Amino acid sequence: MGKKVVVGMSGGVDSSVAACLLKEQGYDVIGVTMQIWQEEEPEKVEENGGCCGLSAVDDARRVAWSLGIPYYVMNFRREFKQAVMDYFMSEYLHGRTPNPCIACNRFVKWEALLSRSLEIGADYIATGHYARIMKLPNGRYTIRNSVTAAKDQTYALYNLTQEQLSRTLMPVGDYTKDEIRKIAGERGLAVAKKKDSMEICFIPDNDYAGFIEKTVEHVPGPGNFVDKNGTVLGRHKGITHYTVGQRKGLNLSMGKPVFVTEIRPETNEVVIGDNDDVFSDRLICTNLNWMAVEGLNGKEHAVMAKIRYSHKGAPCVIRERGDGTVECRFETPQRAITPGQAVVFYEDDHVFGGGTIL
């Protein structure tokens, strides 16, 4: 019998094919769906392609049955609420724009699932992410870009630890999305044509501010739009409705396009400026996770940096500042560097490290 691997099955085509490929490679595969979000309308989740809801369980169970592998649903609702939902709401209330998928990957899909998988005798966990794991000559593990830039998911995985990477398999990273769907069709998997999930799984209607207002007791109310000099320009609906770089939905008649340049939770102000004001050639980040190296050891290092999931990446130089933070200086100014988002550093085709933008 091959080594035992627990595959996190979301009910989608990617994780389903991951389970299929690993079984064909001789692994002893166990399928697991992580129960993280229960209070839902099944019709709405089905319509939105929700990744971890009740409808996803039905799809994952059918795939596991067709592959002839054991299948279980594990309850991670407590871990998900604390590490993802509470964090998400707290960040917005503090004027930052979080990435909940990164928190979910690090603390739920890996930390919690890996721990429970090891307890039941598994050697590895596996997912359907479009990324590859590689071991560098220095002995450290890192995340390597998938073969398809269109679906590459390395950005959302930069925060995984060395221990987690050493226990992880990502078979989907060697294929394009079309190839994955083709494999699913050829193997007769019922989810071969299922559409991808795009929204944040616990906010299927994408109304972040509405979700926070319904969930949190004390949410900052309306406040002032101001310019960088403090001049009041109008009234905003509440800081949770805005993010740096935003242009739409401001309802300000300024005679020209204007953008959110800063959010000030301490004064409940949203700062407005011109397009030029949204660009910067420098950022500071904290909560660093070094992947390809143990740290910079006081030296500057040239890398490519992505400041959001959809960012193509830009050349920059990074240096440690002595207070646990890192400064990143770009060759050219970048648009909408957003506090709370991740900045991920790349060297060649793999993740060098990353942190949270201050």
Q: What percent of the residues sit in helical stretches (DSSP H or I)?
A: 25-40%
Widest sheet: strand ordering: 12-15-14-13-16-17
Please give the radius of gyration in angstroms: 21 Å
What is the string of helix and strand elements?
EHEHHEHHEEEHEHHEEEEEEEEEE
**Mean pLDDT metric:** 92
Report the strand count. 17
Quaternary form:
single chain
The percent range for strand residues is 25-35%
Describe the largest sheet: 6 strands, antiparallel, barrel
Structural class: alpha/beta
- For the record, give the distance between the C-alpha atoms at the N and C termini, rounded to a whole number: 49 Å
Low-confidence stretches: 45-49
Shape assignment: globular
Treating each run of at least 4 consecutive H or I residues as one helix, how many helices?
8
Walk me through the topology.
Layout: E1 4-8, H1 13-24, E2 28-35, H2 42-48, H3 54-67, E3 71-75, H4 77-93, H5 100-119, E4 124-126, E5 131-135, E6 141-145, H6 162-166, E7 168-169, H7 177-186, H8 208-215, E8 223-226, E9 232-236, E10 259-264, E11 269-273, E12 279-290, E13 301-306, E14 314-320, E15 326-335, E16 342-347, E17 350-357
Parallel strand pairs: 1-2, 1-4, 2-3, 4-7, 8-11
Antiparallel strand pairs: 5-6, 8-9, 10-11, 12-15, 12-17, 13-14, 13-16, 14-15, 16-17
